[in-house]
Design brief:
- It is a single chain.
- By secondary structure, this protein is α+β, with helices and mostly antiparallel strands.
- It contains 9 helices and 4 strands; from the N terminus they run H-H-E-E-E-E-H-H-H-H-H-H-H.
- It has helices at about 5-20, 30-35, 75-85, 100-105, 110, 115-130, 135-140, 145-150, 165-170; strands spanning about 35, 40-50, 55-65, 75.
- The strands form 2 sheets. Strands 1-4 form a two-stranded antiparallel ribbon. Strands 2-3 form a two-stranded antiparallel sheet.
- Helix 7 (about 135-140) runs antiparallel to helix 8 (about 145-150).
- It is globular.
């Protein structure tokens, strides 16, 4: 009887999931896994597993990342296309925030205003890099090249070239703009 207890517990947990109609990431097919949110409000993601024969298998898993106010959600194909994301991507990285084509789609009205799940995900990724996504999108719309430079420098972009007029306008630390000559010794 003791050997049957784990089997009974396992089967009863399956029945509970079915009875409650729980949305479990591990039950999703890989082609809809990415950008989905489980019943518990946790993000689903695709992971790879190396098999003994050397092949790689893809599996949908539940991450520990919670999504505020969203559960049992599967991202629409419209949002996936509008935001320029790929359901087949394994893991997620803030590196995509450095790609102008991706940022153009993410910050577009069709994504930014209509796809809160994807925007929230990249909002948090940007925040992890010390960047505020709404500001980055505003800069992306006005000057995409400058937005990428600022992101790569963690928001502290180096100043642009200084003109000779700017140099003369700056106050000199030396009276009459005469610097002491270097010592010959």
């Amino acid at each position: 009887m003791a050997a049957k207890l784990p089997l009974v517990l396992f089967l009863s947990s399956l029945f509970i999931h079915a009875a409650l109609a729980a949305f479990v990431c591990e039950d999703l097919p890989n082609d809809v896994c990415a950008f989905s949110v489980s019943s518990a409000g946790k993000r689903c993601l695709i992971e790879t597993m190396a098999k003994n024969n050397g092949n790689v298998e893809y599996q949908c898993r539940t991450s520990e990342v919670m999504v505020e106010g969203l559960a049992e959600y599967m991202e629409t194909d419209e949002c996936v296309n509008a935001c320029g994301v790929d359901r087949k991507s394994v893991g997620i990285s803030s590196d995509s925030l450095l790609e102008p084509q991706f940022m153009s789609k993410l910050c577009s009205p069709n994504c930014y205003q209509k796809c809160p799940n994807i925007v929230e995900l990249y909002f948090n990724l940007a925040a992890g890099e010390g960047v505020f996504l709404p500001d980055l999108c505003e800069r992306q719309r006005s000057n995409p090249h400058r937005a990428m430079i600022e992101l790569m420098s963690s928001g502290e972009a180096t100043p642009g070239p200084v003109s000779s007029e700017d140099m003369h306008a700056a106050q000199s630390p030396f009276p009459n703009d005469i610097a002491p000559s270097p010592s010959p010794f």
